[in-house]
Design goal:
The two termini are 44 Å apart. The chain contains 10 helices and 15 strands. The chain has 3 domains: 141 residues, Methyltransferase, Cobalt-precorrin-4 Transmethylase, Domain 2 (2-Layer Sandwich); 64 residues, no CATH class; 93 residues. By secondary structure, the chain is α+β, with helices and mostly antiparallel strands.
């Protein structure tokens, strides 16, 4: 952050306003808040950026904020305004930075995943319904043709890549084992049959995009959040053994490892709990056992081609066990 406050011999900030940076003297509400949000939206439609409050305009001298409105404003007020006027929520945060004994407010926003964000309604000549705002060098304005075309092209490319990923996963699972969730009709299709979800349950389900919880970097993953207490027409559900046919001893045999070595390897890669590779299978009552998918074997074989990898796993596992034992002894004392 201090790099943003580098000053020259005259006391002016070296960095000028740009496509990802805007300066303001003080934070204000009312129409000014709409203008800040407009800039944040423009940055989110570009590469993200920051608005820094406490900087004198022309020349840009870092003097600090002269009122307390930045600290006094509830973030809910900003969130509510964003939702009221724009098609998507922003991933934004606020904090106060101290420099030379002065406080500077900072509103920062991340680049939005699904572009563009569109204005939903007019407001006093500040916002226009249907407009797409974009941050250019030193100004936020309605997007021009070239930038809009780039956004649309990127979104098409992202959709193509998602289709490719879906097709790859279907090929790995096998078309007969694929189940499709239709949140509109409330059905999960399973081959020729279907599972019906009660509407009261369906209304509680949400798709949430969460940070970097992805199978492969760059591709968004959707996490299903909600509780399903009952389903109808379950005759066509897929046996778990079909997806996870291997016991731990099967992995040992296929990889030519002993029980300790396979334990260290699975611990190092955090395999247990990863639905791509592992599942807990009920045997009887509350008893479960660990079972693994076939796709785990070639992935492990590739890692084990490095002769040092297994030894690294063993060393780190040994250290982990030793650390836990030390903590246990301290608690007993």
């Amino acid at each position: 952050m201090d790099k943003l406050f580098e000053i020259d011999s005259k006391g002016y900030l070296k960095r000028r306003e740009s496509f990802d940076l805007e300066y303001k003297q003080n934070f204000q509400l009312g129409d000014n808040l709409l203008k800040y949000i407009k800039s944040l939206v423009g940055m989110a439609n570009n590469k993200g950026g920051k608005i820094i409050f406490g900087v004198q305009d022309r020349p840009h001298i870092p003097k600090g904020m002269t009122n307390n409105k930045f600290n006094e404003t509830d973030p809910k007020t900003i969130d509510k305004t964003i939702r009221e006027y724009f098609s998507q929520e922003l991933i934004w945060k606020s904090n106060v930075h101290n420099f030379n004994r002065h406080d500077f407010g900072v509103l920062s926003v991340e680049e939005i995943e699904n572009k563009p964000i569109i204005c939903k309604k007019n407001k006093d000549g500040i916002l226009r319904e249907g407009a797409i705002y974009y941050r250019y060098r030193g100004e936020t304005k309605e997007i021009e043709y070239a930038e809009l075309q780039k956004i649309l092209d990127r979104e098409k490319d992202k959709e193509k890549m998602l289709w490719i990923q879906h097709i790859k996963q279907i090929s790995m699972i096998g078309p007969k084992n694929v189940q499709l969730l239709d949140t509109y009709k409330g059905e999960i299709t399973t081959g020729e049959g279907r599972i019906l979800i009660d509407k009261n349950i369906l209304d509680k389900l949400k798709f949430v995009q969460e940070g970097k919880f992805v199978e492969k970097e760059g591709y968004p993953t959707l996490k299903l959040v909600g509780e399903i207490s009952g389903v109808v027409d379950t005759e066509n559900t897929i046996p778990t053994d079909t997806l996870y046919p291997l016991f731990t001893k099967d992995l040992q045999q296929k990889l030519n490892l002993n029980s300790h070595e396979i334990q260290c390897l699975l611990w190092k890669l955090n395999i247990k709990g990863n639905p791509k590779y592992h599942s807990h299978i009920k045997t009887s009552g509350k008893t479960t056992c660990n079972k693994y998918s076939e796709k785990l074997v070639p992935d492990l074989e590739q890692l084990l081609q490095n002769p040092q990898y297994l030894q690294t796993c063993k060393d780190e596992y040994k250290k982990e066990v030793a650390d836990k034992q030390k903590k246990t002894k301290r608690r007993k004392k």
